[in-house]
Amino acid sequence: MSAETDIDQGRAAFRDQRWTDAFRTLRTADQRGGLPAADLERLATAEILTGNRLTGMDTLVRAHEEYLVVGDVIGAARCAAWLAMHLGNAGEPARAGGWLARGQRLAAELTEPDPVQGLMLLPVALGALHGGDPEAAVALFSQVAAFGQKFQDKDLSALALLGSGQAALALGRAEEGLRMFDEAMVAVTAGELSAVPSGIIYCAVIGNCQLTFDFQRALEWTAELDRWCNARPGTVAFSGQCQAHRAELFRLHGAWDEALAAAAVAQQRAHDGDPWALYGGYYQEGEVHRLRGNLDQAEASYKQAARSGREPQPGLALVAMARGNAREAQTMILRAAGQANVAGRRSLLPALVEIGLAAGDVSEARKGADELLSFARECPRPMVRAVAAQADGWVRLHEGDHAGAAQALRQAWQGWLELGVPYEAARCRVLIGLACRGAGDEISARMECEAAQAELLDLGATAAAAWAATLMQAGPGTKTGASTGPNIGPNTGPNAGPLTRREVEVLRLVASGRGNRSIAAELYLSEKTVARHVSNIFMKLGLSNRAAATRYAFEHGLAG
After folding, report:
1. Are 157 and 195 in contact (CB under 8 A)?
2. CATH of 501-555, one of 3.20.20.80, 1.10.10.10, 1.10.340.30, 1.10.150.20
3. Other CB atoms closer than 10 Å to residue 374's CB: what's the count?
4. Longest CA span, the chain
5. Which residue intervals of 231-341 are DSSP H helices?
6. Spelled out in words, what is the top-level CATH class assigned to the domain 236-312?
7. Is 190 helix (H, G, I), strand (E, B) or coil?
8. Each residue's pLDDT tens digit, 233-269
9. 90-137 pLDDT, tens digit each
């Protein structure tokens, strides 16, 4: 086979996003007789996407040099811009700065405006964003967006939207940022963008949704990223980050074995060529170990996560608290929160409240809870409301407001149930039990703690279950007469009947003919959890089989 044939096949494979085939054929052609600059750029992209990041960077340098040889200043500047961004993300600021300076010099030579000048602004805008100057980043991303609009460059426009959304979050404008993410994702899911910008936007949007407690968006976009990676065999870049996001969703849903499995895949993909999966893979592993009470293993995982350059908080501070070092833990979490931007600080507030209470600093905990309540009013999404209500109720317990605590905690409990987050729902029940005890209702207190302990044991959260058991054995409180607050019913729509939102989701998938394993994969649940949901659906609706459940779903407008 001739080098020309290899080049033609490599171009076709690249066009079809068959990255492994593109990498092999273009590399073979390169070894036989070299490649023109554009094909070297294609080879570099295929190498990066298949996990050969360092080789891909070297090939991108060669493409840059070949563009210079043939006098293509725009192509050379484009390669320099991407080298600056890749190196910046890899934690090599000096080399990134050198390539940025070279690209800027080349772009300045152009006599006519060109999209590459907008591309050159992206590393500068990202530097401002990650350097703690989101206001400057907003202005720079706006300039990038103007280039994208002027030249109808969809990659540039979408990346500008992503950056503007991240800057909005950093400035505390969560709703504005999320709207920008949604608009960027329209271009990604419509297939309008090239591969590397698509992967960047997928992973960044999911990470920022999780940062802002936007559980539903994170779930939706993680499923889309999973499909995107699976539809492009051989993709390593971004696939590890996808597995880390999957691990977080499994963890939240109480499917902890599945979370560990996904985290292990993320760690392997980090080794194989998706280095940005390192943090998430190890941090989520640490979270599962911490929740199970395996504190030494949790700390070891967090230390592995820290190799990425990111600080493993709040996990590390929560381990210190669990070991009885509440003051040390509070020092850690207050420092981390103080150094973070608005979005990062908000993500640390639930731990800041819990650790403050453990340290006996009710005043600091109240400040954190009030910040969360303010965030919930500004961004009233289900998980934000649940987090804020739980923090407020917990602090009210320590302030002696048992009636107010019970009301807030029941709202939080209902929110966690609707979201399908069993660990936090069970912890809320323990706190509700404490509120009942404080109000003098010992029977209800024991009932709540017993139910919570059973749920925590079922999850494998042995330390939290022991906490609940200890509280069951404690004596009754001294205050009487306070209400435990309303028992708010599930918000699942007019036709859902007695089903929770999660049970409706399961019922819809049952009605579509899906088995338990397929449903578990779709919703990031364990098969055991799905089986329990199906059993609850049958019991609540008085049904005996899946065919009857399917019929019910169609008759009540719950299918599809």
Report:
1. no
2. 1.10.10.10
3. 13
4. 89
5. 239-252, 256-272, 277-291, 295-306, 315-322, 326-339
6. mainly alpha
7. coil
8. 889 999 999 999 999 999 999 999 999 999 999 999 9
9. 889 999 999 999 999 999 999 999 999 999 999 999 999 999 999 999
